[in-house]
Amino acid sequence: MAEIGIRKVVSFSYDEALTRVPEALKTEGFGILTEIDVKETLKKKLDVDFRRYKILGACNPPFAHKALTTNLQAGLLMPCNVCVYEDDAGRTVVEAMDPVETMVASDPRMKDVADAVRAKLVRVLDSLS
């Protein structure tokens, strides 16, 4: 199975990650459009306990425009989800969707934009050291 995400275990807390990740995304031209608190949602809807886990929907408007003008179905893969969660060992993980894995397989014309967005997301994760 192909990896659909770019993953980084960080040395700081979950709460600090939720502060640092949006700032790191901003430096690469992304804004946060949505924020889903999975733990809270699962508790409210199913009355189950789950680890701390948030999904941040990040968008870089110029790349979103380019992707949509290449293929309108690209909107199905937007925004770029970035997850912040605690793993089974209690470490904080930041994981971003990999646009190369999710977009190019279905439409090779998306390669240039997917490569560019992936490079930005890798830089975001690298900056979290």
The CATH homologous superfamily corresponds to TT1751-like domain
> What is the overall silhouette?
globular
Q: Give the total of beta strands.
A: 5
Classify the secondary structure makeup into a structural class: alpha+beta
Distance between the termini: 28 Å
Order of helices and strands: EHEHEHEEHH
CATH architecture name: 2-Layer Sandwich
Return residue spans where pLDDT drops below 50 for at least 5 consecutive residues.
none
Widest beta sheet: strand line-up:
1-5-4-3-2
Helix percent reads 40-55%
Share of residues in strands: 25-35%
CATH names the topology as TATA-Binding Protein
The total count of helices amounts to 5
Highest CATH level, the class: Alpha Beta
Notable traits:
alpha+beta, 5-stranded antiparallel beta sheet, 26% strand, globular
